[in-house]
Sequence to fold (291 residues):
Amino acid sequence: MRALPALCLLLASTAGYAETPQQIRQTYVAEATAQQAGFAPSAKRGEAFFRQRFTISDKMPGCTSCHTDNPMQAGQHAVTGKSIRPLAVAANTERISDPAKVEKWFGRNCKEVVGRACTPGEKADFVAFVSEVR
Amino acid sequence: MKRPVLTTLLTLLLATALPALADRMPLPANTPTSFKDECGSCHMAFQPALLSATDWQRTMASLKDHFGTDATLDPKTEQEIGAFLQRNAGNAWKLGAGGEPPRITRTERFIRKHREVAPRYWSDPRIKTAANCESCHKGAAQGNFSEHDIAIRELRR
Fold:
């Protein structure tokens, strides 16, 4: 009985850590709406972004360079050959569950592949795509 | 009468066990999670013993352009990983220097250990790059670099 409050606290803290893709998407939607009234995320735009070729990096012209054409599939780092678990939430439940990790990888990959920081709208669309794709 | 036999046996045992031991290089038990998360997400979380302290220091000082990638970390994580690498770095004298920027694959030890590997293998699509330890050494992440269980048949000894 004495352990109950501690247990509740533990549950609450783990729940607070593992956020759902929905919650993370909402954060980006809120940021995008602040810049552009009436913004609505679109998985379709997210997919187009995922498949787009950029001219910044020779080895990584687009997301698909490492993540393959199919986000349900495991990928491979274009330079190091390290295997990469699928991007799609449907194939890898750890995806889009930690806001800090999501931000970190948007930060790194957008800079390297797109050549600039991604906008909140692009992030919201991308999160919509990878959390809905099956 | 028994002594010399025992000594010979022990010597033999040691002589066969030592090369195997040299190929066992697990990550230290107290490896910080940040090291596995940050370094191990784009490439294998390389064992600190694979580079000297000086070379790790140079690596950590140039994370902004880490082989073409911006791998900068927040100051706390950078400090934690840097200290871990310094504590567990390899013996500079045995390894040799890794060049500039330091590369594990440029150390004399790595080159000596891989001298039988024909150049064409390094560009083989299964291997891709010499930094992809796991393509040949399946147990590399667990510290097993034994040459007896190489994943690519043609390279097995």
Summary: The helical segments of chain A are 3-17, 21-35, 43-51, 64-67, 99-114, 120-132. The beta strands of chain A are 75-76, 83-84. The first helix of chain A runs from residue 3 to 17. The longest strand of chain A covers residues 75-76.
